[in-house]
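haha ok so turns out i had the wrong file open the whole time. this is the CORRECT one, sorry everyone. sequence first:
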Amino acid sequence: MKPELVKNYKYIILESKHYLPSNIRVLKSQNEKVFAYISLGEVNKNAPHYSILKNNTLGKNKIWDSYYLDLNSKKTIEILMILVDELFAKGYDGLFLDNFDNFTIHGPQKEQKTAIVNLLKMIKEKYPNKSFIQNAGLDLIAETTNYVDAIAIESIATDYSFKQKNTA
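then structure:
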C-alpha cells in the first residue's frame, strides 16, 4: 500500500511492523487518526516479542496458531509496555487493542479479567492523550469505559470452516 493514496479516513488501523515512521507521518497528514494494532492477550510465533514471552503463555489458540499471554506475569506486562512505548515513539495516535473477548465470561483468559483492565489502565495513565479502540469484549465495558475511546465489534457470523480452511 502506498500511504500517499490513503486519504480522508477517520481511522486507519495498521499492522505496525509493515510501516516506517515516515509512512505514519504521511498517513497522519491525510487522515484523522492512525492506530497501531496490538494484541494484549495473545502472541504468535511471527511476533518479534514471541521469543521473549514464549515461556509466559497459558496455552495455544489453535484456530489462530497463537498463544495466550499470562497477564499475571510481570515479564509479560513489562514487554507489552515496551511494545506500547515503541509504537507511540513511531508516531501513532492510538492503539487498536485486540483480543479483549478472551477476557470475558466465555473467553479462555476469563480468570485474567482484572489483569487486562489493570494493564489498560496503566497504558492510559502513561498515555492520557492517546486514543484507544477496544476490539470486542463487550462484557468488560463497565470496567474499560474510562480508558477507551471506542469499541470495535467484528462479525462473528461466518461460513468459514477453520478446520477445512474454506467456506462451507
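The chain is about 30% helix and 25% strand.
again sry for the mixup
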